[in-house]
Amino acid sequence: MDIVLITTIVATLFVVIGVAEPLAARLRMPYSALLAVIGILVSVTAIFFMRTDLTDALNPVAEVILGFPIRSNVFLYVFLPTLLFQATLGMNLRRMLDDWVPILVLAVVAVVVATLFVGYALSWATTLPLAACLLIGAIVSTTDPSAVVSIFRSISAPRRVARIIEGESLLNDAAAIALFGLFMGFVMLGVPDPTLADALAQFPLLIAGGVLVGWVVARIAIWVMAAFPQFELAQISISVALPYLVYIGAEQSIGASGVIAVVAAGLTLNLAGPGRLLPQAWINLRELWDVLAHWAGALIFILAAFLIPRFLADVRVHDFLLVGVVILAAITARAVILFVLMPILHKFRLSPKVERPYRTAILWGGLRGAVTLALALAVTESFRVPNDIQRVVGILATGFTLFTLLVQGTTLRRVIRWLGLEDLSPIDEALSRQVVAVALQTVREDVARTTENYELTHDIVRSEAKQFGDRLEEAVKLAEDNADILERDRVTLGLIALAGHERDTILDRVRDRTISARMAEQVLSDADRLIEGARSGGRSGYQRAARRSVSYGHGFRVAGFLHNRLSISAPLANMTADRFELLLSQRLVLRDLDAFIGGRIRRIHGRRLADLLAELLSRRIETVETALEGLRLQYPGYAEELERRFIRRTALRLEEREYTAMREDGLIGSEVFTKLMGQTATRRAAAEGRPRLDVAFQRIELVRQFPLFVDLDEAALKRLARALQTRYANAGDVIMRRDTPARSVFFIASGAAEMETAGQSWRLGRGEMFGQMAILTNKARRTEVRAIAPSTLLVLDEMRFRRLLGRSPAIQEAVRASASRRGIPFSDLE
């Protein structure tokens, strides 16, 4: 085959890719559908020129197109790892974890349900063996929701809905290909009617093996990349090799799922990469993968579309009926998931509410594409699959794909318009007016500075300023005097604006490296939760998201268990250090928001709303300060080390800025500038390292600071520190319930709790204890204790507490004082 001609065709394909995207936007149709149409037209045109007698001049080109080396292995080993790996790198995993239940339902359960629906429907309509029917079901069950996601973004659909569909697009390919490999094995082995037990028996190796290979190889790659932080191109090169190594390694070495291995490797790099690589290197790595995935996605659609005329060459009338069966079964299966299972999940608070119009759009937007055609091609290429099964698989997969692309894809925009999803809600309309007012105010300030710098003619400036001022006044008036929204919606608008500015502030702090790359994703995720909480729940939703940003998660409880029961301290130390840095970052950002409230919010929404937002912000700052102070008390000295690190990094940033300014002013040349920046980069790399937190040592220091333990000697303090267990509680968590057996005594290391008994309540703070009275009176607890702030508690079991009481006068005095407050004679206590 002529290499020059092949190179020309490949270059032409890239031209087509470049032209197709703006053309698809102009035609208002999905990009993937347009690429498929182009591929089909190219293939049909090549066939036409090969069979016509009109001209022979284009026959060489047609021969190259029809003989282009398109094999299933090219799709599965070259394009698919690229698409999956980039999807995992582009995900906000922390936000995805908020919606892991609906994502898994759409990505895994929906694939299994679609496979079963299509498989059994075909088994009733044809004489094919059940294994072959289920194989077809697995092939057509994977969706390409990129079209509906892009449309949802353009119409300002709820972010959580778009994120759920994005999560589905990542995982459903893995689930469908895993099922495909399973049933393909049954078909090639001649197992006509596999049982569910047969299928499930193969899954542990496919899934667990793929996860293990992906995680191990990714950790090795991250370790190698972190070893040379200054060589950015070398790091990016290793990242390019990673998905292909894990895919081939999983498939060829242990027979596991290469797709699962690629997903696991991408997720591992996504989680660990920002903390191990320099911020700019991580940004450049992701940008390169965005480009690679764009090319791979476009090429796989065009090349797969070349195959469609080949698949349909043998079509018969009866096949159209079977295609109709596949269409009905697949749509019915997806409708069951969206309209039956998703509302059930929402009822049990396992999923956000997805309005019916959006569910309808998701149903109609479940397009199939290149992956379906690639899997069908793999079947038709296998000599171990009977010819009649090859023919049916090719025709049904192609027919169903054409229906989704040419019918659903071309009408998706009209369906969304018919559902009314393109119309802005009153609050979104008000928000758009607010955005215009804020933007125009910023433009006015910038234009004023620009005109001063250029010393323009005063009359011209005044004339233009008057016109612009009139427009700004009108925009502000529209933002203030919107009669279509309620007062609570005005609060919601203010909170959305405040949370949006908080996110912008975080991005500024990340760019100037005041906030580390390790924390960037988490604080941005918290800001996104604030925006979504305000949009969906107003003030209460915003406050819930704010409380969550400083609360102890389930991971802390698991880490505490590992530390207390198994003496594994690393997870607790890392999570505590992350919490320190997160709280310091939040405090830094929150203190920058006062000016925004006093400026733009006050000008647009008035003094009353600005005062309300200022009060909410003040409460958030107080909560962060309380949580930070609790950690300072719990881990003396560590917060000081982190703050020193923050000062060093800030000083380095300012030093780099000064060198850049000197170079721009011509005070230093490029050689001196390069040397100075290199020295600064070395010092910055050292400053990026976070000080180590020794949890065990800090526990002893914490116990030593308790007034209750002041009379214990050093040996007793160490024994007590080993015996105490750590428990974390969020605000509102019940720590001790009424009418439960008394087995432990609690000491408050940080935070605060409220105790309620016999209709009375009082608050306890750091250094105080509770739970001792029920133990000493040998009665069930009559007191309920609830945390009123994120709190860290030290827990001591009954036997050790009694021994401690016997040798500590300070504990005895504390128990006596507690008994006196409740009217219990000390002599009654054992």
UniProtKB/TrEMBL annotation:
Transmembrane domains' residue ranges: 6-24, 31-50, 70-89, 101-122, 128-149, 170-191, 203-226, 291-308, 320-341, 361-383, 389-407
Regarding the membrane, this protein is recorded as: Multi-pass membrane protein
Q: Which Pfam families match?
A: cNMP_binding (PF00027), Na_H_Exchanger (PF00999)
> Which compartment or compartments is the protein found in?
Cell membrane
Q: Which GO terms describe its molecular function?
A: potassium:proton antiporter activity; sodium:proton antiporter activity
GO BP terms: namely:
regulation of intracellular pH; sodium ion import across plasma membrane
Identify the domain of life: Bacteria
- What GO cellular component is one of the record's annotations? plasma membrane
Matching entries from PANTHER family are given as: SODIUM/HYDROGEN EXCHANGER, SODIUM_HYDROGEN EXCHANGER 7
Identify this protein by name: Sodium:proton antiporter
Q: Which organism is it from?
A: Neptunicoccus cionae
